[in-house]
Amino acid sequence: MELRDYTLEKVVYDGDETRVWRAVHVPSRARVAIKIPVAEVPSPRVMGRLIHERKALMQLAEVPGVARARALEQQGGTAALVLEDPGLGSLDRLLAKQGRLPVGTALRLGRLLSRVLEGVHAAGVMHKDIKPQNVLVDEACEGVTLLDLGAALLERGRFAHFTRRSLGRGGGSGEGTSPPA
Questions:
Q1: Enclosing domain of residue 57
Q2: Which of 55, 121, 170, 176 has the most CB atoms around its CB within 10 Å?
């Protein structure tokens, strides 16, 4: 696929079906990430996931901590999903580099990620594929961005009940939750 308005710089993720590049949008000089199918002619399933991911990201456009879609470039039976690049690295790479996170850092990251997921669920989206490679963080884990919503379930309002307000301050209904400290 020819992406005339973009300069591809570095592969940041290389999967079986898609590859993600750090790139620059030449006209605006904006830093972006571009998710492109690996196959020259991607399967309908891969194309469907890219289109679905853009739809999910558009539904989550107002939720802090979620990747921002800029465009879906389509050409010759393939597509490229263009995202804003927050300049963060994946949690799995941070863990591979530094090992286990200090307890305070892990707790901070957990709080940040839970706030993002609260917004995601309130917007009627269930991610369904949360794992370290789909969480971008800075070195200190003070900033977090959730990405890869290709498998997300989109149900406006359906998951809104999974919020801090509905679960109460302590969270959960009591079943399966830890006792108060």
A1: 6-84
A2: 121
pTM: 0.82
Asked if residue 50 lies in contact with residue 79, where contact means CB atoms within 8 angstroms, the answer is yes
Task: State which of 56, 84, 112 marks the end of a domain.
Answer: 84
Overall residue count recorded for the chain in this entry: 181
- 171 φ/ψ angles, rounded to the nearest 5 degrees: 80, 150
What's the CA gap between 160 and 63, in Å, rounded? 13
Do 23 and 79 share a structural domain?
Answer: yes
Query: Are 77 and 146 in the same domain?
Result: no
Which DSSP symbol is given to 25? E
| Angle at 11 (CA atoms; ends 9, 14), nearest 5 degrees | 160
Buried (b) or exposed (e) across 66-85, using 16+ Cβ within 10 A? bbbbbebbeeeebbbbbbeb
**Tens of pLDDT, residues 10-64:** 999 999 999 999 999 999 999 999 999 999 999 999 999 999 999 999 999 999 9
Say what the alpha-carbon torsion angle 113, 118, 122, 128 is, to the nearest 10 degrees: 50
- In angstroms, the Cα distances linking 10 to 7, 13, 114, 180, 181 are 10, 9, 30, 47, 46
The answer to whether residue 34 sits within a structural domain is yes
66/119 Cα distance (integer angstroms): 9
